[in-house]
Fold this protein.
Amino acid sequence: VTERRPIDPRRVYVVGMSAGGAMACILAVRHSRLFAACAIHSGMMYGAASSAMQALAAMRSGPSATSIDEARRLVREAGESEVAVPTLVIHGDGDATVNPVNADRIIEQLRARAEYIDPSAGPLFASDERRIDSGGHAYRQQDYTQQGRIVLRKVLVEGLGHAWSGGDTQYEFNDA
């Protein structure tokens, strides 16, 4: 699209929720040079499952230890795109469809990937988690920085189920 239309390739973002969040994670890992940033809402980490049964189990309980090991291998082999895409991970703590533990697995995976891609940049440092009362659902936010730049941000929205946070409630899977 950026080759056919007058679009600034430095301003292309990938965003998805649920299965779309898992796809956004795949794209951010496999084709990171194409994206300025990524947002994964209620998704799963790249390589969390290799079958429908594994996917359902990972949605319920998070990926298995075997899947996490396989995902680590896949990330190390994703050599085509060796850029750490700044990523926002959003999840509701009341999500009964995709367990919120998946947000932690995404952060762990992308944190390890960023440190693997550029070891000379040093480790990612986690900020203290802070609770923010926004007038709607309160949320907890934690940032992960490398050389003073935010690379990852996790937002866990209190009381949010499997719905787009800040969405239009006349549509399914949206929560104002």
